[in-house]
Amino acid sequence: MKRIVILGAGTGGTMMANHLVKKINKKEWSITVIDQETKHYYQAGYIFIPFGMESKRTLTKQIKQFLPKGIGHMNIRVDLIKPEENKLVLSDGKELDYDILITATGCRIVPSEVEGMDGEGWMRDIFDFYTVEGATALAEKLKTWEGGNLVVHTAEMPIKCPVAPLEFTFLSDWFLTKNGKRSATKLIYVTPLSGAFTKEKTSEILGHLLENKNIEIVPDFAVEKIDPANRIMRSFDGIEIKYDLLVTIPTNMGDELYEKSGMGDELNFIPTDKHTLQSKKHENIFVIGDASDVPTSKAGSVAHAQGEVVTKNILRYIAGKDLLPDFDGHANCFIESGYGKGFLIDFNYDIPPAEGTFPVPGLGPFSLLKETRMNHLGKLSAKWIYWNIFLKGIKIPFITSKLTMKGKKF
Amino acid sequence: MGQKEIAGKTVSVNEEGYLTIHEEWNKEIAAAIAVEEGIGELKEGHWKVIEFLQKEFKENGTVPSLRRVTKAGGVPTKDLYAFFPGGPLKKSSKIAGLLKPASCV
Ligand SMILES: Cc1cc2nc3c(=O)[nH]c(=O)nc-3n(C[C@H](O)[C@H](O)[C@H](O)COP(=O)(O)OP(=O)(O)OC[C@H]3O[C@@H](n4cnc5c(N)ncnc54)[C@H](O)[C@@H]3O)c2cc1C
User: Fold this and answer.
1) CA A39, A307, A390, A71 torsion: positive or negative?
2) pLDDT tens-digit series, residues A240-271
3) Could you tell me which of A207, A397, B24, B65 has the fewest CB atoms within 10 Å of its CB?
4) Measured between alpha carbons, how far is residue A28 from residues A3, A95, B79 in Å?
5) Is residue A326 part of a domain?
C-alpha cells in the first residue's frame, strides 16, 4: 500500500482530502491528513471580529467534521521533512513515510521580524487581526477608543489576502463614523507598496476611495522599527509616524519547518512551479495554498482554483504522465468597503482586474471593480459557501478554475 | 517602449526608463542612471548590490526580493536604504539594467 500524506487540514488540505478520496484507487493508495490543530477557522471572517460582527465562536468548527470517511487523520505537529528519504518527523519523535506529500501548511504572522513590534506595546496599542486572538483583543480595544491616530500598517509583502488591510481601513471608517468617533480619529494607511494595492487600475480606484473617505495614505513605507514607549513607527529612510493605535499586518511567513528541512525560501515559502504546483526541488511533493511561493494572491479562492489542478496532476504523476501546466494564478476577492457595500476583483498571473460582471457574463449578479451592495452580500455569503461547498471540493456553477475573459471590459 | 540615449549609447527602455534589453547594459550606463536617479557616484557598496541582482537574475530569471538581497546577498536593509534612498529595489534594479520587480500580489 502506498501513502499520500496531506500536511495541513486548513482550506487547501481539507479540499485536497475531499478531492482525492473520490479519485484515488483505494486498493493501492491510502490518504493520511495531519494537522497540529483540532479546530478549523474561517479566517476570512477575522476582518469582522474587531467590529463585533463575528467572534471566535461563530468562525470555528472542528477539523474532523470536514474530512471524508476512509482516510487517516492525525492531530500532531510535523517538525521536520526529510525529502530525500520521503519521511516526516512528528513532534513526538516518531517518523512517517510517504510516497506523495501535499503540503498545505499555509502561512502565519511573525511580529518578531520587526524590531519593537512584539515588545511592551503588543496587544496594548499594537494589534493584529490576522489571528483570532489578535482580532478579538482588538475588538475590546476599539470598544473604548476615543480618538487619535489610528494607523493601519503592512510590514512587508507578500501577505495573505492582500486586500484585508484596505478592508480593515474602510470598515474602521464606517465603524468609527457610526460610533461618533470618526471626527476625533485620524485614519492613516501605511503600506510598503507604491499605492493602495498591488494591481495598478485597482490601486487607482481604491486610492480614490481612501481619499474620498478622508484616509491619509503613506506609500513606499518600509518599516525599520517601532518605539512602543513613544508610540512611533520609523521607516528605513527615516520617516516617523506617530500612532495611538497601530493595527499591523506583521511579516507573513511559511512554517519554520521548511527552514529546518532546507525546503523554504527567505520567508519559508516553498519554491513551487507556478503552473503545475509541483515543488521545484522534489517531484513527489505538491504545494497548495499559502505555503507556496507562486506569485498570485494568498487566498482561499486561489487554493480552491489550485485544488483541481493539484488533483489532476497527482493522478497524472501516479500514472507516469506529464503534468499539466493548468494553474493560471486565478484569484477572486471580495473587498468590503464599509456601509454595506463592496468590490469584487478577478485576475490571474497575466491579466489584471477588469470591469465587468461575475460569475455569469453580462448578468452578474456581482460587478467587477465597482462598489455595490450585491458585492457585499457576496462577501457575507462566502462563509456559508466556504463551509458547505469549498471545503468539500464541490464545483461551484459558473466558477471556473481558470480566469475567464467573458463578460469583462478591457 | 522607446529608445533613449544614455551615456552615449542608444538603448531600449520602457515608459519608466528601465532597460528592456539587458544585453545593452554597461557600467557607463549604470553610472549615468545612478546620477539621474539622484544616487550620485557608484561606490563599492552599490556595486555589490548591483552585481548580486544581476547574478540572481541570470540564475532565476527574476529580480530578487529585498529580503533576499539582505539574507542571501548579505547587505543589511539599513545599508540598502543608505545606498539607494527612496526605494532600494526599484532604483538598484534600474541601475543594474533589469526590469523593475513585478509588484508582489
Ligand atoms: C484576515 C484574513 C482575511 C482573509 N480574507 C480572505 C478572503 O476574503 N477571501 C479569501 O479567499 N481568502 C481570505 N483569506 C485567506 C485564506 O484564509 C487563506 O488563503 C487560506 O486559508 C489558505 O489556506 P491554506 O490551506 O494554505 O492554509 P490554512 O487554511 O491556514 O491551513 C494551514 C493548516 O496547516 C496546519 N499546519 C501548519 N504547519 C503545520 C505543521 N508543521 N504541522 C502540522 N500542521 C501544520 C495549521 O494548523 C493549519 O490548520 C484571509 C485570511 C486572513 C488572515
Assistant:
1) negative
2) 999 999 999 999 999 999 999 999 999 999 99
3) A397
4) 9, 21, 56
5) no
Asked if A55 reaches chain B (Cβ–Cβ under 8 Å), the answer is no
A149 and A212 housed in the same domain: yes
Chain B residues close to A297, C-beta within 8 Å: 105
Please list the residues that pair with A33 across neighbouring strands.
A6, A73
Do B80 and A236 lie within an 8 Å CB cutoff? yes
Residue nearest to atom 5 of ligand 1 (CA): A44
Instruction: Identify residue B99 by its one-letter amino acid code.
Output: L
**Domain shared by A128 and A224, yes or no:** yes
Comparing CA positions, the residue from A159, A197, A399, A200 lying closest to residue A298 is: A159
Q: What are the residue boundaries of the structural domains of chain B, listed by start?
A: 2-95
Question: From the CB of A309, is ligand 1 less than 6 Å away?
Answer: no
A29 occurs within a structural domain = yes
pLDDT lower than 50: segments of chain A: none
Kindly state whether residues A135 and A184 are assigned to the same domain. Answer: yes
Per 3-state DSSP, what percentage of chain B is helix, strand, and coil (rounded to 5)?
Answer: 50, 10, 40
* 3-class SS of residue B11: strand
- Please tell me whether residues A137 and A236 are part of one structural domain: yes
**3-state class of A334 per DSSP?**
strand
Q: What is the per-residue pLDDT across A307-334, written as a single tens digit (0 to 9) for each? A: 999 999 999 999 999 999 999 999 999 9
* Structural domain boundaries enclosing A95: 2-108+253-318
Number of domains comprising chain A: 3
Cβ contacts of A84 within 8 Å, gap of 6 or more: none
The one catalytic residue in B59, B78, B102, B104 is B104
- Residues A115, A230, single domain; the answer is yes
Q: Is residue A370 part of a domain?
A: yes
A130 with A246, same domain: the answer is yes
pLDDT less than 70: residues of chain B: 1, 102-105
Using alpha carbons, select from A107, A152, A146 the residue that is nearest to residue A300.
A107
Q: pTM, whole model, 2 decimals?
A: 0.94
Nearest Cα to A249, choosing from A367, A356, A147, A158?
Answer: A158
Residue nearest to atom 4 of ligand 1 (CA): A44
pLDDT of amino acid B104: 54
In chain A, % of residues over pLDDT 70: 100
CATH number at residue A295: 3.50.50.60
Question: CB atoms < 10 A from the CB of A27, how many?
Answer: 6
* Same-domain pairing of A183 and A75: no
Residue A140 included in any domain:
yes
